[in-house]
Amino acid sequence: MKETHDNDLSHSMVHYLLTIHKLKENRGFARVTDIAKDLDLTKGSVSTMLNNLKKKELIREEEDCKFVVLTELGHEEVHRILSSRTLLYYFLKDFVGVDEETAQNDSCQMEHLMSPKTSEKFFNFMKTLACTCEDLEKLGQLPKSFQFKTTLDLCAYTTCDEFIHHQKGDSHLTSK
Length: 176
Fold this sequence. Notes:
Elements: H1 11-27, H2 32-39, H3 43-55, E1 59-61, E2 68-70, H4 72-96, H5 100-110, H6 116-130, H7 134-138, H8 160-165
Antiparallel strand pairs: 1-2
Helix pairs in contact: 1-2, 1-4, 2-3, 4-5, 4-6
């Protein structure tokens, strides 16, 4: 299987993947027309980008009905992107203290630039700073005075892979 990393994707490509994912989740299908409408673009522009995403083996078109679907690799990328965006959003909002709109905009700009390796380290870093669960006590958890409060329940996940595979997006995070 071909391997693609988030940083191989342009910001625009990421929005196409997220839009296809969102349409499939909400409507059960995604067509060129639906994607164009959702992104406020022409069908011609969408077709051009979809061809680029096909070359990267992230999407395919079903022959019988022309629905656009994510490949297995495309699904993996979407979940990785959503997990990076989620981690960045909550880090900026809860750890750094920026307002929600700024956290949303900045996390959207940075999500596709984070490598899988950095995302995993970032997950572990945030979990160490925010969780008070028993698992972290074994790892040398920070004293409570050094812990951050976040509304993202990182203790619900044992590993970064588990977090990534459970990402469906966050109601606070919109596709722009």
